[in-house]
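Suppose you are handed a protein chain with no further information: no name, no annotation, nothing but its sequence. What can you learn? This example shows the usual starting point.
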Amino acid sequence: MISDELLLAIFIPAVPVAIAFCVASFRLKRHRGGPVKDGKRLTEGELELQLARLREVRKDLLARADVPAKVRRITYKEDAYADIDQLRSESNHYRRINNFLQGFLIIGSLAATGASGVATEITEVRWLILVITFSVGISSGFMGYFKYKERSFYLQQTADAIEHEWEAVEIGVGRYKRIGDEDEALAEFVEEVHRLKSEQKKRQQNLEQPPESRGPAE
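A reasonable first move is to predict its three-dimensional structure. Written in C-alpha cells, the prediction is:
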C-alpha cells in the first residue's frame, strides 16, 4: 500500500503544475499568433487557405494578362519554394505512417513470440496471439502494398533537389555560374524544376499501380 506521506509528496507539487499548464493552454488558445480579423486571431489553417487563394488569384491574373516570360519565370521560381514545403510535408506524413507500422511490426512480432511461450499454461493468451499475429500481417501487407517508405523517400529527394536548384540560381553557383544573363538562368531553372516535378509525378503514378504492374522506379 502507498503511504499517505508518499501521496502527499506526489500530489502537492503536481497540483500547481497541472493548474499552471491549464492556465497556459487556455491563454495560448485565446491569444494565438497571426493577424486579427473581426476581433479574432486567424489560425494557421486559415492563413494557409488565404495564401493559397492569393496564389490562385495571381496565377489567374498571369494567365489572363499579357505578362512577359521573365515575370512568369520569376513567379514560377517563387512558387517553387512553396512546392518544396508541400513535398516535405507529404514526405513527413508518409514517413510517420511507415515508422508507426514498422514499430508495430517489431513490437507485435516480439509480443507474439513472448506470448506463445506462456500460451500452453494460459489458454486465453492464444486469442491474444491470434489478434497480434493478424494485426502484424495487416501492417506488413499495408507497408508492402502502399510503399510508404518509398513514397517518403522520393518526395524528400525531389524537395531536396528543387531546393538545391533554388539556392544555386539564387546565388549563382553550379550550372548557373556559367550563365551571365539572368533570363537564361531563370529559363534553365524553370526547365530543371519542371523536369524534377515531372519525374516525381511519374514515380508517384508508378507507386500507385498494383504491385504486379509496377515498372522499375527511375
